[in-house]
# Entry
Amino acid sequence: MSEYVYQPYPAWRFHPTKPAVVVASAAEDEQLGDGWVDSHLKLGPLVPGRGGASDALPVPPADAPPASPDGRPAPLDAPPDPAKKRSHKKIPR
# Structure
């Protein structure tokens, strides 16, 4: 078995407002211009609608009411809302 040899290309490049791309050489990397980084972790927190992995996060519909009066989401261990009715239909087996 041969020893691992690092190869810088092809490589992923990430941008705060554009979809991620793969570059095949240093020349392609330079052509991207400013704002591109080699790790999505260097972009800061994920923002829905930016493209890439952040769009895979669950985002409530725009017309959905906030989970609490101050607009913050309800904690994961919050008790169920009694105003919401649950279906108790039995599923046939």
In short: Strands lie at 11-13, 21-23. Residues 7-43 form one domain. The first helix runs from residue 26 to 31.
